């Protein structure tokens, strides 16, 4: 096992945070593979999952490079994904929550896509060239993620009595996990600078416009969960890692 | 006489996209450049760097293509080969060659329409059926069998087909 929790460099923390969000979302979405409601949507969601894992690879490769420049430790994208424990992960809690039903999966994906879309737009103009490159590359597919998940929020919210109820239930279950995305940690503020204001505003505006169109209410302000960004996770992350890291734990250094 | 760089680019014509074997990596436009360093009298002792840009962030074909580039150049005699990944500027279907688009169509995949920056929604595109040439086609899903494709259906010949998305 390796650990990254003692790393203090804000850029490395930020890049790990981005990689962890992408990987855990991708892993959760991949759980739908073979279980989607219809073939096309199964394929759509697994396409998104694959793209998220691809984003995670780019961020982890960059993080590994930065870590080796800083302290000489030779890490790889694989060691960062497979050899860290839950306290090292900096993903937002929403990403690790179980998929629930289709409505909950859709809502999770919509909240995250709306966030990643605006975040990557800001990062595409960041002075850090590598971050800007990964962000511009990721944005191309993010367009598809955001449209697909927005369309589904609309379809369920503005659909049948049952689909609307499912969407409202999803909002009730997940809403307290939404604010963490724009409740920026110190390391995010250092890298994002002033652009964090526009990310917050654009994210809120996007959610409001899709909810309005779908006839869904944004809940009144209440208690909001947080902790993922500093490594305090729900019990669910441990189960994800048990599954995802099984092979490397059972057969260390296995390659295929 | 060919420069060494051009000769290498010609060799790379034989590296195909494993998902769409009619397209070479040159057709796709993912080889950004070939750089020879440490130039040696024996050309095979020179160091060859191939700069490639990945098509899609998670495309599993990328690792395969890199291995294939090494294989082709090693077989040709080169001993010092480096493959560097370039993320910026991000790959776009605008870099796909015209002959590549033609080959796609013959293979049964509709080629990307227009410039990637046009941002036309995929539902609003007039995608022509690669089988019968009709423009009476409908989008089934923006996500298809691989990350680069969307699924369409032709209302004329009733066949489903893949469309290579603008990227």
Radius of gyration of chain A: 18 Å
Total number of strands of chain A: 0
Number of helices of chain B: 4
Structural class of the helices, strands and pairings of chain B? alpha/beta
Question: Which descriptor suits the 3D outline of chain A?
Answer: globular
Stretches of chain A where pLDDT is under 50 for at least 5 consecutive residues are none
Helix proportion of chain B: 10-25%
Q: What CATH architecture label of the largest domain in chain B applies?
A: 2-Layer Sandwich
How large a portion of the residues of chain B is in β-strands, by DSSP E?
A: 15-25%
So what's the CATH class of the largest domain in chain B? Alpha Beta
CATH class identity of chain A = Mainly Alpha
SSE order of chain B: HHEEHEHEEEE
Integer average pLDDT of chain B: 90
- What's the overall geometry of chain B? elongated
What's the architecture of chain A in CATH terms? Up-down Bundle
Largest inter-chain interface?
A-B, 28 and 23 residues
Total domains of chain A: 1
CATH superfamily of the largest domain in chain B: Fe-S cluster assembly (FSCA)
Percent of residues in helices of chain A comes to 55-70%
- Lateral arrangement of strands in the main beta sheet of chain B: 4-7-6-5
Which terms would index this structure?
heterodimer; A: 256 residues; mainly alpha; Ferritin; 11 helices; B: 167 residues; alpha/beta; GMP Synthetase, Chain A, domain 3; 2 domains; 4-stranded mixed sheet; 3-stranded mixed sheet; 4 helices; 23% helix; 22% strand
Explain what you see.
The complex is a heterodimer of chains A (256) and B (167). Chain A is mainly alpha-helical and 256 residues long. Chain A has one domain: Ferritin, CATH 1.20.1260. Chain A has helices at 10-30, 39-71, 77-82, 93-96, 102-123, 129-157, 161-174, 186-192, 195-214, 235-244, 246-250. In chain A, helix 5 packs across helix 7 and helix 6 packs across helix 7. The two termini of chain A are 20 Å apart. Chain B has 167 residues and is of the alpha/beta class. Chain B folds into 2 domains: 4-85, 2-Layer Sandwich (GMP Synthetase, Chain A, domain 3), CATH 3.30.300.130; 98-164, no CATH class. In chain B, 23% of the residues lie in helices and 22% in strands. Chain B has helices at residues 4-12, 25-28, 61-76, 98-107, and strands spanning 31-37, 47-52, 80-85, 109-110, 137-141, 149-154, 160-164. A 4-stranded mixed beta sheet of chain B has the order 4-7-6-5. Chain B has a 3-stranded mixed beta sheet with strand order 1-2-3. Chain B starts with a helix and ends with a strand. The model of chain B has no long low-confidence stretch (mean pLDDT 90). Classes of the chains: A mainly alpha (256), B alpha/beta (167). Chains A and B meet through helix 2 and helix 6 of A and loops of B.
């Amino acid at each position: 096992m390796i650990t990254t929790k003692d790393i203090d460099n804000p850029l490395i923390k930020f890049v790990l945070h981005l990689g962890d969000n992408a990987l855990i979302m991708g892993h959760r979405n991949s759980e739908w593979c073979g279980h989607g409601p219809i073939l096309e949507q199964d394929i759509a969601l697994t396409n998104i999952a694959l793209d998220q894992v691809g984003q995670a690879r780019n961020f982890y490769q960059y993080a590994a490079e930065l870590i080796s420049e800083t302290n000489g430790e030779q890490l790889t994208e694989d060691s960062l994904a497979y050899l860290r424990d839950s306290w090292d992960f900096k993903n937002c809690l929403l990403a690790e929550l179980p998929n629930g039903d289709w409505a909950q999966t859709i809502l999770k994906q919509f909240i995250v896509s709306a966030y990643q879309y605006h975040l990557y737009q800001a990062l595409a103009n960041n002075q850090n060239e590598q971050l800007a490159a990964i962000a511009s590359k990721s944005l191309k597919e993010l367009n598809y993620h955001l449209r697909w998940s927005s369309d589904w929020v609309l379809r369920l919210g503005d659909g049948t009595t049952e689909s609307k109820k499912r969407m409202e239930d999803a909002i009730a279950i997940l809403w307290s996990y939404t604010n963490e995305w724009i409740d920026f940690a110190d390391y995010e503020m250092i890298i994002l600078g002033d652009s964090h204001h526009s990310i917050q505003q654009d994210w809120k505006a996007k959610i409001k416009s899709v909810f309005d169109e779908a006839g869904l209410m944004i809940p009144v302000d209440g208690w909001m969960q947080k902790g993922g960004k500093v490594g305090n996770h729900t019990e669910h992350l441990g189960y994800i890692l048990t599954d995802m890291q099984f092979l490397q734990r059972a057969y260390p250094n296995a390659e295929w | 006489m060919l420069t060494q760089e051009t000769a290498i680019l010609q060799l790379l014509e034989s590296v195909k996209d494993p998902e769409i074997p009619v397209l070479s990596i040159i057709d796709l436009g993912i080889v950004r450049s070939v750089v020879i360093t440490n130039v040696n009298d024996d050309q095979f002792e020179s160091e060859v760097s191939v700069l490639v840009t990945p098509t899609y962030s998670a495309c599993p074909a990328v690792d395969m293509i890199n291995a294939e580039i090494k294989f082709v150049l090693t077989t040709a005699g080169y001993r010092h080969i480096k493959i560097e990944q370039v993320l910026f500027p991000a790959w776009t279907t605008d870099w796909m060659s015209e002959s590549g688009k033609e080959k796609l169509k013959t293979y049964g995949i509709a080629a990307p329409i227009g410039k990637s920056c046009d941002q036309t929604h995929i539902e609003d595109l007039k995608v022509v059926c690669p089988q019968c040439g009709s423009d009476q086609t409908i989008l089934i899903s923006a996500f298809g069998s691989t990350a680069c494709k969307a699924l369409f259906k032709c209302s004329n010949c009733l066949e489903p087909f893949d469309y290579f998305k603008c990227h």
